[in-house]
Structure formats: structure tokens, C-alpha cells
């Protein structure tokens, strides 16, 4: 395996299950605490959630966090205490800045169809900013990394992050497609569904992740249709 390349398997993640939710956590979350796995770079949450029909997260608070939601299947309805409301669906980028405090809910309003999404949290550059909300349709993605959310200078993303050192990219690969990861101090590669070969490191599949540290871009080659979420981070928590 190349230096500074760590594969994290889906089977090793903590899982929260309720009658309406299956949530798989890439990092410590809620009751699942591992002091050796609290974050990577600036990324502190990478939850892969499946929410049953006519259910969801009731109103709850957040503070000082940039929260990005990416829907894979179904629709998720967002409402918050700042008066924002949006329906998030595949191909739509969404970010909520919790700032100095916000309440929000996330619901699956469908009576028949579950919603599958990945929710990711990064820390903002500044605390206690005004809460904010943004969504923007990206549409179909292909075999190149498309900036979904970024505060990184020069990165023209669909939505803005209040962090100058982070960018989230996405891609949808067909079998045989190949792309390279960004060159950055910290890169987090997540495969919510599909199968990839990571140059020099082997194969990853549904729910697996790769954490790259101080590594030049590695080639990723799809063995089947694959969705891909890649965080490029030029700083880490604590400097």
C-alpha cells in the first residue's frame, strides 16, 4: 500500500439503527465515540443515512458547523429556524451553516420511498457567524471531479463553504472510467455505492473510504457504476 494511504472498510464503521433510520458513521458520532477516530483533516462527520418513508429527524440544534448534504436516492425536506426550506434530491448540492446557532429538521415526506443520503460536516474558519443556507442544482455528473461545495480560493463550486481550506468534489463513474484524486495534505475518498480500484492500494466498494495524507494524486478506476465523494483539505483541526 502506498505511504500515507489508509483504507477504512464499511464493516468497521459504527452503526446507529432505529425503526426508521440506519446511519453508518465514518467518525465518532453521538453515542459512538472512538478517541482515535474523531476526524480526518477538517472533516468531522461523514454519515451514510437511510431514512424510511414518512419519517426523519425532528427539529434539533446545531452550532458552528458547515453541514453538506448529498442525496443519492429519494428526496429530503429541510426546514430551519431561519425560515429556510428546501427539498434536496439527487444532483442538488445543499449546505447549511449552523453559525451561532440554528434549529432544523430533515424529513422524508414520501409515503412509499426511502431516502438515501450522505451528510458531511466540516468546521468553519470562524465561529459564531450568522446561520446560512444554500442549495444549487448540479445535475448529472460524469467521469471527472465536479466541485460540489468549496471555500478553497479558485475552486468554482456550486455552493460556498465558510472554510478556505476545504472543497468537496463528486463524480459518477462508469465501468472502466478512471480519475485522479486531488493533490492536497488531506484527501478523503468515499464510495457510497460502487466499486473502485485504488492505485497501489487495492479495491474499495460500497461504504468504504480512503484517507490520503501528503500523497500525490492516485488513480481511481471504476469496476462498475460508482458514485464518488472526495474531500480535498489543505489544513487539519488544530492547525
From TrEMBL:
Residues in Quercetin 2,3-dioxygenase C-terminal cupin domain copies: 164-233
Boundaries of every Pirin N-terminal domain copy: 12-122
Record flagged with keyword Metal-binding: yes
SUPFAM superfamilies with a match to the protein in the record: RmlC-like cupins
Keyword Iron belongs to the record: yes
Signal peptide: none
Cofactor comment: Binds 1 Fe cation per subunit.
InterPro entries: Pirin, Pirin_N_dom, Quercetinase_C, RmlC-like_jellyroll, RmlC_Cupin_sf
Name of the protein this chain belongs to: Quercetin 2,3-dioxygenase
Organism expressing this protein natively: Mycobacterium simiae
Record lineage: Bacteria, Bacillati, Actinomycetota, Actinomycetes, Mycobacteriales
